[in-house]
Design a protein that fits this description.
The protein is of the alpha/beta class. It has two domains: 79 residues; 244 residues, Class I glutamine amidotransferase (GATase) domain (Rossmann fold, 3-Layer(aba) Sandwich). It is built from eight helices and eleven strands. The termini are far apart. The structure holds zinc ion. The site of zinc ion (ZN) has 6 residues, from loops.
Length: 348
Amino acid sequence: MTPSTQRSVTIITGVALIVAVTALIAVLLSGGAQSSVSIAEPAPSAQVTQSGSFSTLQVQTQPSSAVVAESAAQTVRETDTTVAPTVADTSISSGSTRPKTLLVFNKITDGRDWHAAARDPANALFDQYAQEFGFEVTYTNDASIFLSSDSSDFDAVVFHNTKNNVFESDELKAGFEAFIASGVNYLGIHEAAGTHNDGTTETTESEPNLNNFWPYLEDLNGSLMDDHPTASTAGSERQNATVNVLDNSHPATAHFGSNFEHSTEWYNFNRIPPNATVLLAVDESTYNPNGWLNEGGMGQLHPIAWHQDFGGQRAFYTAFGHYADEYSNDGVRTHIGEAVLWVLEIDS
Ligand SMILES: [Zn+2]
């Protein structure tokens, strides 16, 4: 390379660097991380660091090698074609500046999705809150995601009407436990408590239990669904009842008065969640709580929504959300939306 060629490469490189840095700054200043184009990793902090080193390069009169020119050209190409410059490789302080991210887990295992109609309105609710409060949402029904993800990828996970044995191996169970332990908060909605909840049916090789009891999920939810009223046990699966607000200091219940009426499928739980703060309880005298296991419901305290500290993580459970129209009920929308924000640790 002749000196004049080298100089022109240097100039071109310098221009390219300035373009690249300008593009980077523009992306950062425009809140690019919240644009519709997903900017996952690397985190913006890594881009700032990288653009800082580009600034240093700009004041050099002689780029030290063709590698720098190649690297700059590469950066410009990538800047031209993507919103997120791939400055990659770096020591990214994971999760520090990326947008809050919610993982919504929708898996069921036996194909009989009692809550199929609720999925679209629930997703619309999550999406609306995401847009309003600037977080991102990922939807999946693949349990293997927990093997390859942790708190650097997601801040909270929602089990939205999951059902039965969604973790079909010990490896998947261990992966999920590690995922939560890495620092991910949890929100269980309705049949999240009907997931791995059957402690009554023995598993045999010829008759596998499709809903194996898993104590970890009982602890994470706080309790599990035992049964609920049905047409044969109570005349109707869906009933109107009075809900008492036991604690309105939480953002998910602050909008309720001292009590309110609601119509849903009322779960009977296998226990009072032992380490939780119960927020809502349904008044069993206002409906027929008989289920196929529990004659007479749960007794004096029948919790419906609660939260707890789970090994340092936030965990929230609400029994609302069986029916699609519950997601257009203002009170329930705010209840679930605020629970989402709470597990994401976003102030509303
Ligand atoms: Zn249900």
